[in-house]
Amino acid sequence: MKQSMILLHGLFGGLSNWAGVVKYFENRYDMYIPELPLYEKHEGDTVRYLVDFLATMIDAAKLTKVILVGNSLGGHIAIRYSYQYPHKVDRLVLTGSSGLYENTQVGSYFKRGNYGYIRERVAATFYDPAVATDDLVAEVLEVTTNAYKCLSIIKCAKSTQRDRVLTLLPEINKPVLLIWGEEDSITPPAVARQFRENLPDAALVMLPECGHAPMMEKPAAFNAALQEFIK
């Protein structure tokens, strides 16, 4: 029976962000790429709501000993889930994770309809602006031109900024791999080092010429580091 791997996207991310990881691992692992319900109406804190969503999904699929891989907001959710349900998690992989510090400019994204500005902000996510394809920019533009989705994203961003996980990290007694871009301007390398220093069993891989989404910008290096960690 294949071990399960769950890939969790970020605030402006989507399922396509993980295409390279899925292609590399799908024949050896049972892959799950849930779409986080960022735009569903809910009461209370968004981070807790998303953790509950993940818990319900894992329980419904009867998964155990999962490998959780999270980028940005997805990493934040993976940390919270691992803390609350340690018996369900085998290993944890964080890349550009929120939860400690984010240089967020979410509020400035919402110059609604300003295509040039949105393209500039999406490109700033990466070291190589060419990674910000027309399709990727269009996905973000669709969010920023929808008033309800804008408010949902702002609510989620504020929730992640309030929810700091530093005090939880020493309690996460699972092997953790941190894969970080050396040019990450949203969660800078100092954030990765703080994660490593406070997690009991953590390894850090820094990728040169790479920004906030290493699985997209450096897929070969990302997959090699992940493979070495879970083999």
Features:
single chain; 6 strands; six-stranded parallel sheet; 42% helix; 9 helices; 231 residues; alpha/beta; Rossmann fold
Describe this structure in words.
The protein is α/β, with parallel strands linked by helices and 231 residues long. It has one domain: 3-Layer(aba) Sandwich (Rossmann fold). It has nine helices and six strands. The protein has helices at residues 19-25, 46-60, 73-84, 115-123, 134-144, 147-162, 189-198, 214-217, 219-230, and strands spanning 4-8, 30-32, 66-71, 89-95, 176-181, 202-207. The longest helix has 16 residues, at 147-162. The radius of gyration is 16 Å and the shape is globular. 41% of the residues are buried. The model has no long low-confidence stretch (mean pLDDT 92).
Compact summary:
With 231 residues, the chain is of the alpha/beta class. Helix content is 42%, strand content 14%.
Strand-helix topology:
Elements: E1 4-8, H1 19-25, E2 30-32, H2 46-60, E3 66-71, H3 73-84, E4 89-95, H4 115-123, H5 134-144, H6 147-162, E5 176-181, H7 189-198, E6 202-207, H8 214-217, H9 219-230
Parallel strand pairs: 1-2, 1-3, 3-4, 4-5, 5-6
Helix pairs in contact: 1-9, 2-3, 4-5
**What is the percentage of strand-forming residues?**
5-15%
Mean pLDDT: 92
What is the C-level CATH assignment? Alpha Beta
Assembly status: single chain
Rg is 16 Å
State the strand order across the main sheet: 2-1-3-4-5-6
* Range of helix content: 40-55%
Question: Total strand count, please?
Answer: 6
Kindly report how far apart the N and C termini lie: 15 Å
Tally the helices.
9
- CATH architectural name: 3-Layer(aba) Sandwich
Spans where pLDDT lies below 50 across 5 or more residues: none
Order of helices and strands: EHEHEHEHHHEHEHH
Number of domains as seen in the coordinates: 1
- Label the overall shape: globular
